[in-house]
Automatic annotation (TrEMBL):
This is 3-isopropylmalate dehydrogenase. PANTHER family: 3-ISOPROPYLMALATE DEHYDROGENASE. SMART domains: Iso_dh (SM01329). GO terms for cellular component: cytosol. It comes from Ohtaekwangia koreensis. InterPro entries: IsoCit/isopropylmalate_DH_CS, IsoPropMal-DH-like_dom, Isopropylmalate_DH. The lineage of its organism: Bacteria, Pseudomonadati, Bacteroidota, Cytophagia, Cytophagales. Homodimer. Binds 1 Mg(2+) or Mn(2+) ion per subunit. The record marks Y142, K189 as: Important for catalysis. Keywords: Amino-acid biosynthesis, Branched-chain amino acid biosynthesis, Cytoplasm, Leucine biosynthesis, Magnesium, Manganese, Metal-binding, NAD, Oxidoreductase. Pfam families: Iso_dh (PF00180). Its cofactor is Mn(2+); Mg(2+).
Length: 353
């Protein structure tokens, strides 16, 4: 298979971890006889410094002409202390999602057995948890009408969803459910919210096209509770932008470290793959960042954008084996980890390769 991959390392540890993600893709190409070519593009603080623009047109063009994008992170501490800065690294990220029409954010939440002991949640509750979230990215209260009235003493945000927005993400989630445990949980607040009643209606309609998938509708408050009480009861979860934002942060704790979680943002064109963590300037340049989230993002890329299931599973198994062999980065090491098994970013990546 011949494919063009654009890499956007971005800022901070984004550079360090995407180097490992790229290496694993090269390794897969070599082992399975594929031809992957790589190109680089700039985004974020780095792009602002070089061009004044957090997402130069040249970067966007490269992405639009690629088969998949591997992204690191954007951000720089200098903007944290300057909330009024007009040009910000995050603008590059939002523009990228909008321009590429990336409406579905997939977050697999999986706890590797090897990290069970290090978790703060009881192992008997966590063992075997494996959830795939589909968070809608382009609608909801983030994009509805908002404002102030009564001389500013009252504020409102409008939760808004259109049929087609729910339909397209529901189809993606149902298709994914078919390849997994054939169970889909749609999360809403249909007992209170009109937009949620439309959401539920549309999901029920779409469900008719997927008779092999068991569908369950759950209110968001109940889902939040059940996620901690019995995470194994979930397989694929589909939900709106706001509920997805909150639930996936909650669920990230099931997997242990931020450094373990990958994500995919997909639409109807090119897919974008990135760790859920940010630029983490506190550890930038120290060579200690966990590269597994980027490596697992590369696994998602192989599966979702290229349909290379076996290749993707091989990468996941390599991560599993690395953990089984006792290797850890600092963030996932515990008191029992021998000193010599705590590796830096590059070496950890090489072990997986
Ligand atoms: P940003 O502003 O770009 O979101 P951040 O400074 O908020 O960056 P995050 O990346 O969101 O930092 O992560 C929060 C903390 O989690 C970091 O300070 C870092 O110590 C830790 N962390 C995040 N990613 C990793 C990783 N891959 N490996 C190890 N630790 C990580
Ligand atoms: Mg952050």
């Amino acid at each position: 298979m011949k494919k063009k991959i654009v890499i956007l390392p971005g800022d901070g540890i984004g550079k360090e971890v995407t180097a490992c993600g790229k290496k694993i893709l090269e390794q897969v190409a070599e082992c399975f006889g594929h031809q992957f070519t790589f190109d680089y593009a700039t985004i974020g603080h780095e792009a602002i410094e070089a061009t004044g623009n957090p997402l130069p047109d040249e970067s966007l063009e490269k992405m639009k002409n690629s088969d998949a994008i591997l992204f690191g992170a954007v951000g720089h501490p200098k903007y944290d202390n300057d909330p009024s800065a007009k040009v910000r690294p995050e603008q590059g990220l939002l523009k990228m999602r909008k321009e590429l029409g990336l409406y579905a954010n997939l977050r697999p939440i999986k706890l590797f057995d090897e990290l069970l002991a290090a978790s703060s949640i009881k192992p008997e509750i966590l063992k075997g948890a494996d959830i795939l979230f589909f968070r809608e990215l382009t609608g909801d209260v983030y994009f509805g009408e908002r404002g102030r009235k009564d001389q500013g003493s009252t504020a409102f945000d409008t939760m808004i969803y259109s049929r087609y927005e729910v339909e397209r993400i529901a189809h993606k989630a149902f298709k994914a459910a078919l390849t997994r445990g054939k169970k889909l949980t749609s999360v809403d607040k249909a007992n209170v919210l009109e937009s949620s009643r439309l959401w539920r209606e549309v999901v029920q309609e779409v469900a008719k096209q997927y008779p092999d998938v068991t569908v369950e509708h759950m209110f968001v408050d109940a889902a939040a509770m059940k996620l901690i009480q019995n995470p194994r009861s979930f397989d694929v979860v589909v939900t709106g932008n706001l509920f997805g934002d909150i639930l996936t942060d909650e669920a990230s704790q099931i997997a242990g470290s931020m450094g373990m979680l990958a994500s995919a943002s997909i639409g109807d064109t090119v897919g974008l793959y990135e760790p859920i963590h940010g630029s983490a300037h506190d550890i930038t340049g120290k060579g200690v960042a966990n590269p597994l989230a980027s490596i697992l993002s590369a696994a998602l890329l192989l599966d979702i954008s290229f349909g290379l299931k076996e290749e993707s599973e091989t990468v996941i198994k390599a991560v599993e084996q690395t953990l089984k062999d006792g290797y850890r980065t600092r963030d996932i090491a515990d008191a029992a980890t021998p000193h010599e098994k705590i590796l830096g970013t590059e070496v950890m990546g090489n072990v997986v390769c």
